[in-house]
Structure formats: structure tokens, C-alpha cells
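[SOLVED] Need 3D model of a two-part complex

Original post:
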Amino acid sequence: MHQAPRSTSPLGRPAKAVLAASVLALGLAACGGSSTSQSTSSSAASGAAGAASASTDLKATLTYGLWDQTQVPAVQKVLAGFNAKYPGVKVNVNVTPYADYWTKLQTQASSKTLPDVFWMNGPNFQLYAANKQLAPITDQVKSGAIDPTKYPKALDDLYTLDGVQYGVPKDFDTIAIWANTALFKEAGVALPTGDWTWQQFQDTAKQISDKLKSKGIYGAAAGMDGQTTYYDTIFQAGGTVVDGKKSGYDSAASQQGIQFWTDLIKSGASPSVKQLTDTTADQWFTSGKLAMYQGGSWFRSALTKGPVSSSVKVLPLPMGKQKATVIHGVANVVAASSKNKEAAQALQDYFASQEAEQTLGSAGSVIPAYTGTQSTFAASMPGADLQVFLDALAYAKPLPVSANTAAWNALETDLLPDAFSGARPVADVTKELAAKMDTALGHE
Amino acid sequence: MSSQVQVPGSVGIARRPRRRGDGVWPWLFIAPLLLGIGVFYLWPIAQTVYYSFTTFGVFGGSTFSGLDNYRQLVTDPSLYRSLLNTLLYTLIVLLNIPIALYLASLMNMPGLRFASVYRVIYFLPFVAMPTAVAFVWRIIYNGDFGVLNYLLGLVGINGPYWISTPGAAIVAVAVVGLWSNLGFSIIVLGAGLKTIPQELYEAAQLDGASRWRQFRSVTVPLLTPTIAFLVIITVITSLQLFDLLYAILGSTNPTLSKSMSLVYFFYRSGFVTNDKGYAAAIAVVILFIIGATTAVQFRLQRRWVHGG
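Solution:
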């Protein structure tokens, strides 16, 4: 569930102009006082940019660990730019599918053979940082090689532990509503405009479900994934999920955040918990049986083909007591045990540069984290209003994590379905969840 | 070519009488195997047993904690639930043996055409990848759009959401387990059937035994060694249920905590919630359960297996 955005789209869609612009940006993203370098053709690959800086004579072979195969072409492009600067550093890209990524990383960490640079996500970050597996970026920030203010603050915070930042955000994702405008039209329900409330959302979903029930179509879906559903509503209600060493579930606000989904199912506006287990919310949406899917920006890549993609529009999340969305993003980190730390940090610096981020963004599968490089994502689906995901930055809250996130994630998966389905009162479930979660947090 | 016929082995025995103690040579020959077993099985088992008495850090490093893990384990309802689920699964999968016996006898009937075609058809599920099998069944079981509930609907039965209803989920998984084991059992039993001398049936026929009587008094008793083998293998593999369950139910299924097997419980403790010492304790319990069940079966075999 906390995967990086997946993409099935090949390269080549983004306009050539954008590519050229990204190449020109090379000079602007001057890294560590290197002299300006420019290349006029779009083939910025090896040798084109002959930047001369103090450390370009670095010689090393690095491993770069990541989990998303679909992003490899973009990564290779970035690496070509890196090698133009550091011809002596060879980077081997090491892709491990997400399902095995963390198991493998743990084994590598135990045997001190972690990749020199690798992808990190929020739920796992503190585990690695607290166990001294990651190199801090403190010196790179001091030297000006990395400027944390260029990335969303929520993401800097996500990769900071006890005041020390370890990871540089690479991309980000926020949550919004993917709406199927064709179903709205079919049900004769007006598409919501601008900000809207929880009540309006519930009413809209119920109207559509009532109208189109005979066709097996629902208005909305109470998917049981924290990041895309109940964390958002808990934040909107003013609650918390985890607060230091304490669970936030045992509060009235957090209970309201859960109750939102219980009500949605109870009114018939959403398929039941069982239905959503057999067929997940995103599957309901892509098969044209769901009018509103609350999901992440990464879902965009699933919409490049299929009948639904031509009638998609993005709406902001409805607001409870306040506006809120969950933000998460992958970061590049350097292993503390790396034998080529200087080269590894040079690579980390380069990935953090505007130039690299622009290249990554042009590939279209993810929203780059560097402020000002996101416009290509928003433009990648004309008419769908992807800008909503970027505007959501203003009220985004970081994905709730702790030192051993997975332990209480498992508790949520075990207990919350009973609350969603109405089998047990929400207050009972959240009370039990909070107690068990406190125990788990106490063990950390 | 020479037309001489040699009795295999006879020459060797004559030429080289067995001396007392063969020295180091036999050991050298089995050393590669022993080394492999030692490094990849025995040493890890010993380590797992040791780790089960420790609190194990996520990135290595363990501190001795005595019986803590076991104390926690015996009070953990998940242990008993997953044990019950595993036993239920094993019992259902065991049913494949009588079914396979029936089918194997049918396929062994003299004069049956296309016997090998049937054998291939029944064996295919066994060679198919469990994950692929699981995904197909996941679609069949789908509550809203699955074939199974559609067929049940035709006869007026409102089928449940098979893989998301506690209770139904483990049965659904077990049925797939039964189905995919069928082919293996049929092949093994078919081979067993071929070893029964045809004269026994002829003699039984002369004595006026019916088909059913022949099956009961000749086929089954003479097949008991094969059946015993199948029972032991099936029980061991069933107690290790993991891949089918994981792939059919999915890792975010809300019924997982109520439908998980012992090995899933182990996986979850060790690799999801990162409590590796606790997981080691579960692994030791699983090892003990499988070892004890197998030992009991070997003991019981003497009572019912022909020539056992």
C-alpha cells in the first residue's frame, strides 16, 4: 500500500521541449560550485556536459537499489546526466520487486552489504535510521549541495529523526478523489465544484448508488487502506493516528474519521467490506462500476488505457473539521556502511538536484519532489485536473509512521474491518486498537 | 557386442571382499551431501532453536531472553487459531486420497482409451505454479463476479463471499489444495496399482468376487504402503501451508488474522511485524508438531499397512 507510484506508460509521451528544458536546467542546478555547463542537444548522455569540478575525478562503483521497474528508464536518464559530471563513477541499478524489497534490505543490512544508495519509504525509515543504517545528509546541507527547503516540508519531516535528516525526497504523492464523469452524467448528479464537505460527499455517493444500483454501480468505496482512506478522514476530523509513543485512535476525532467510512457502507453508498476484499476499490473504478475512487496520485499511471480513462476528473477531498490529505514520498538515502560514501553522497546530491528531478518528472510516472518541477505531471492528463494533487500540498500531512510501523499496521488490518462493517461499534474497536497499538509502540 | 550376460555386482563382490572398516573413503564420497545438509539444514535449525530463546534485533544482534517467547506464544490466541486452521486444511486435503484412489482405479481399468490423456489432465494442476493457480481461483471465488457464485445462483443458492468470510476462507483454500494435490496422488496410486499382480484378480474372479469386493479385498490392502506414503507426504506439506493461502486471500485480507495457517503466522511475526525471536519460537513449534505427527503416523502404520 505504501508503494511508490507505478507506471505502465513508456517514455516518450512528454514533449520534447520539456526534455530540452531539463537539459538546459543543468547549468542552473549547479552542484557544489561547478562551472556552468550547457548542452544544446537533448542527448545529454555521456561526455556532452564537460563540467569541471573539484570532485569529478572520483572513481568508484556504486549500487543503487530500488523497487519500481517502470521507473528504471527515467533513472537511467538521470544517471547519464550524473556520469557526464562524474565519468569515473559507475552505478549499477539493482531492482528488487516491492514484495521482496524490505526483506532483502533487512538481510543486506544485517550482513553490512546494503546498496550504497537506495530508495527508502516512510513506514520503514525510522527503523533504519534508529538502527544507524543510514548516513545523515547534514554535511551536504551545510555545504549547500542539498537544500531541504526545495522539497515539501512534510516530506523533509518524514525523513528526519531526532532533528537529523537522512533522506532526500525524490517524489511525492497526495490523495484526492478520482471521479468518473460518465457515471455522474448517467445518474444525473451534478459534478461537485470547488471545496465540499463530508456531508456533501456522502449525499453525492448515496444518490449515485441509489440511481445506478440495478447496474451494480456504486457512488464511492470505503477501501480499507489507511493512506488513501481513513488516515485522511482522521486528519480531516482533527485526529491523529500516532502521537509519539501513543496511539491516536482512542480520541473522539479519530473515531469520527473511522465512522465516516462506516456510515458510507451503512447507507449503501459503498460496497461492503467483503465486496471490497474480493474486488478492490481501484478495480471497481477501472471497470467502470465506481463513480468516486479516493486514491493516490500514483493511480494516474493505471489510467493511461482502458475505457474509464477518457472520462476522469480529479476532485479535492471533502473537508471535515479541516482540509487534509496524506502525503508520502520516496527518498534517496545513503547506507552508513557504504565503502564509497563520497561517491554515494555525490550521487544522492545529484538525484536531489533540480535537473535530475526534472528528468524524473518528465517521465510522467511520478510527481518529482523538487519545488517547481511538477508542472509536467499536471499537464500529463489534459482535462483531468491533476493540479488538485499539487494544490493539496498546502494542507498535506505526512503519512503516520513510527520506529516499527509495520507492527501496528498489522493491527489496523486485523481490527478495523469490524468497525467498517458495523459488526462492532467504532468506539469499541478503536479503543481495543489503541490499547494494542500502545503496547506495540512501547516495544519499539 | 558380446553376448555374455553378467550378474550385476557379482564380480565386484568376488574380487574385493569387504574389509573391516572402509576408512575415510565412504565419508569422503558422502561429504558433499553431508556438508550441504549440515550447512543449509542442520545449522539453521540449531540457530533457529537458539534464536527462539532470544529477542532478535531487526538488523541482527540478539539478546538472550529465556523462555519469554514461548511464554508469550502459549497465551497468544493466534497460535491456536492458526493451528486449528492448519488442521482443518490438512483434513480436507487428505480427502484427496480416497478420491484419487477411485479415479486411479478407473483409469487403470483394462481397455480404457485415452488413459494417459486423463492422467495429464489431472496432473496439470500439480505442475502449475501455485501463484497462477491461486489467482485463477481468486477470480472463481469472487463474491460479486465469480463463476462459482454465478453457477450457485442458477440453482437458487446465494453463495457467500468465499475468500472474505471467516470460516469460509480456509475451506475455500483447502478445496484448492485438495484439487491441486489430486494429480500427484493419482500418479502415485496408479504406479502402485500397476504392481498388483493380475493373477490375484483372476483368482478372486474365479471365487466369484464382485468388482467392489475385489477392490476392497485385493486393491486396497495391497495399496496400503502407497496410501501410507501419500498420507505422510500430504500431512507434512499441508502443515506447511503458506503460498496458496497467501496468494488466494491476499496480504491485506481482513479475515487473514482469523484464517491464517501456522506458517503464515510465522511469516507475519518474522517479516511483517519484525519480531524474529518470536517467529523462531513459532518455527520450533511447527517443527515439533510436524515431527510428532510424522512419528505417530510411522508407529500407527504397523497396524494397518500391508507388510508394514
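Edit: DSSP finds 18 helices and 17 strands in chain A.
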